[in-house]
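notes to self, project folder thing:

trying the whole complex as one job this time. last attempt i did each chain seperately and stitching them together was a nightmare. two parts in total, labels are on each line so i dont mix them up again. if this works i'll redo the older ones the same way
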Amino acid sequence: MSDSVSEKVIEIIAEQALLEPSEVALDQSLEDLGVDSLGLVEAIFAIEETFDIQVPFNANEPEKSDFDISSVSAIIAAVTALIAEQAA
Amino acid sequence: MRRVVITGAGTINALGASVPETMIAMQEGRNGIGPLEIRDVERLSIRIGGQVRGFVPEDHFNRQQLALYDRFTQFTLMAANEALAQSGLEFSGALAAEAGVVLGTAGGGLNTWDENYRMVYEEGKNRVHPFVVPKLMNNAAASHVSMTHNLKGPTFTVATACASSNHAMGQAFQLVRSGASRVMLAGGSEAMLTFGGVKAWEGLRVMSKDACRPFSANRNGMVQGEGAAVFVLEDYEHARARGAEILAEISGFSMTSDAADIVMPSRQGASRAISGALKDARMSTAEVGYINAHGTGTAANDKTECAVVSDVFGADADRLMISSTKSMHGHVIGGTGAIELIACLMALRDGIIAPTINYEEPDPECALDVVPNTAREAKVSAVLSNAFAFGGLNAVLALRAV
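result (full assembly):
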């Protein structure tokens, strides 16, 4: 499960960054990848639709959100946690 | 060029069903934002808004009229009636032929779209009421004001998202200033607090779930409102000749485009609009006592707006008051600049500055005098009203006391 989550999250981020999934490294931030605030909101929408989860995210205070977006691996971890939490 | 004055004002919004009611609410720093009472609210994650409450359309319009008037048109007609009654103007002959209506709205008849989509998509009906199109069209409100009051001159609707009504008032101002018309009605209206309207805004993730706190460090987004405001713009000599009461003078207007990003505001675009309005009005930064801010309560707008005001005003920014009445009536999108102009009239006429309510924590990036929480008495002779829309479209009005 977690491998497929990570693959799908990377695909979603890669699409917003206009890159191939293979070009996205886990330790990169969205800023490194050139994803702006609008791209981030689109990526979160795609994550919600793909995994059928609610992501707690307010664009006005991204740093205060429980959803960690500091790097690709952080996003994968956060999505994995939300899937587990919201399936429960 | 002719001088342009305001000789009538009308409104309905979350703070009141008239200009006096709205001004009293602004003086009290009253919060017009509360739980939304709309259909399917339980399917929304944003459940607050500045709704117009206690308004019963049937008390004001007959059945035939209601078949043609979306909520945004109803709001507009209420505001226009109040404004025209105050002005004392009636239209016939040559004056009727040149007087017109310029109104702003972003969404037009959204309640009509919402209700009818629901019927055909959700309920599977295959027939809609014959007046759906004339009811939902963005120019419906302007046309009904024109028909109701016999205004036969330039009449149209401007849609520039959150700057719509400032653009509309600016257009009307230019028509009167150029001599094309002695009288124009101008303002704006929005009735976007429908399930679809709020759901669309939810998607952007810029809405607050609890309150609109412009300039406060703990702000977490905008809150939508609804309503309308309409003003009578009149050639100064015409107004004087008939002994009309003059509420304020519109001295300048400027509009710019950021040409940068579809949602993120830019300093250069906003800065050029503010400087442009000052220049158009031949107004110095020292003359301006108050700015009615765009002040949406989003992270992006408020810090950009404060930075721009500091840049343009320099040392004069320190003695300037700047407040966002959106904290009280919500962001009325295409009608917001018009409703906010009421705070400008109150500042110029009554010497009362409307506060920014819900102000809780200072933000070093918004280090201006935002008139926190409590209205203030202050004599000001000149004011600005800012509107900076999605799409990067900016419109700023400059007004003086007369």
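what i see at first glance: Chain A touches chain B through eleven residues (CB under 8 Å).
need to look closer tmrw
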